[in-house]
Amino acid sequence: MYPEHHFAVVKMQSKTLRPEDLEILNTEYKQDPDYSNIHHLLIIIDKKSKPSFNISYLTRLSEKYNTETQINNHKSIVWLISRPIITALTQLFIMKTNDNSHYCSTIEKAYKLLEIPIEFEAFKKLIDDVQL
């Protein structure tokens, strides 16, 4: 999280996207003390990641995702994805959430969709600096 920029990046780089990992990530992110200061969220799903769940699981995950533990001040959320199956699952998930999310396949498009008030090169550096 970069609260000074009101920006957060979530990178999912595991080979398998397991339901329990997604739920833990969601819970930890929302319990971070800076969560309420985040206006722009970028979620990156690595192109090598494969889901280990079916479509019916998305309803359960969206219910947990829609549950806030703190005030949600997100203005923009972008999912950066590059696999057809992940694109389809992301679209189905977004349809079940309360947020105004978008998805795309390039960092340039993610930057435009987020409308984050920092220069593009600084944006890319923040993303590159994120450690797992």
Strand and helix layout:
Layout: E1 7-12, E2 16-17, H1 19-31, E3 40-45, E4 50-51, H2 55-66, E5 76-80, H3 84-95, E6 101-104, H4 107-114, H5 120-129
Parallel strand pairs: 1-3, 2-4, 3-5, 5-6
Any key phrases for this structure?
132 residues, alpha/beta, 4-stranded parallel β-sheet
Question: Could you walk me through the main structural features you see in this protein, from its secondary elements to its overall organization?
Answer:
The protein has helices at 19-31, 55-66, 84-95, 107-114, 120-129; strands at residues 7-12, 16-17, 40-45, 50-51, 76-80, 101-104. The chain is of the alpha/beta class and 132 residues long. A four-stranded parallel sheet has the order 1-3-5-6, sandwiched between helices. Strands 2-4 form a two-stranded parallel ribbon. The protein starts with 6 loop residues before the first strand and ends with a helix.
How would you sum up this structure in a few lines?
With 132 residues, the protein is α/β, with parallel strands linked by helices.
Unreliable spans are none
Global outline? globular
- Indicate the proportion of strand residues: 15-25%
The radius of gyration is 14 Å
How would a textbook summarize the main sheet? 4 strands, parallel
Record field, number of beta strands = 6
Number of helices: 5
Question: What multimeric state do the chains show?
Answer: single chain
Q: Spatial order of the strands in the main sheet?
A: 1-3-5-6
Can you give the mean pLDDT?
80
Derived structural class? alpha/beta
Distance between the first and last residues' Cα: 12 Å
Helix content: 40-55%
Name the helix and strand elements from N-terminus to C-terminus, one letter apiece: EEHEEHEHEHH
